[in-house]
Q: What sequence folds into this?
């Protein structure tokens, strides 16, 4: 159980770090920037709130909750995968691509650990 919670928490930290990187390299007027601290703070809080369901679901070992958790985290994986090509399109985007790759790997390992934990404790 600790592995499941830790992987979801590390994925959340990766997403928040990705927000910091994206706001540091802001290229336009309509993007998140560190110059607007209120909007940036709202984005960080929204990211943390969106990661609360898989973090809470990681504490339980019921089959239905595990299925919901896997589906929820699959959307997170798709989001990180979608950020990879965007990192190639922006200036200094290799760090964005790197962190989205790390987030994808952490999310996939998190989904795998849910499956592995479920199969060993069934």
A:
């Amino acid at each position: 159980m600790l592995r499941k919670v830790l992987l979801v928490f590390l994925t959340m930290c990766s997403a928040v770090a990705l927000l910091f990187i994206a706001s540091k390299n802001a290229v336009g007027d309509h993007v998140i920037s560190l110059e607007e601290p209120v909007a940036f703070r709202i984005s960080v809080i929204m990211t943390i709130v969106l990661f609360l369901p898989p973090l809470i679901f990681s504490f339980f070992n019921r089959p239905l909750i595990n299925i919901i958790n896997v589906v929820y985290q699959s959307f997170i994986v798709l989001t990180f995968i979608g950020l990879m090509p965007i990192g190639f399109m922006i200036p200094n985007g290799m760090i964005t691509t790197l962190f989205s790759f790390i987030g994808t790997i952490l999310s996939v390992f998190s989904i795998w650990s849910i499956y592995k934990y479920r199969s060993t404790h069934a």
Observations:
- Residues 2-120 form one domain.
- The two ends are 14 Å apart (CA to CA).
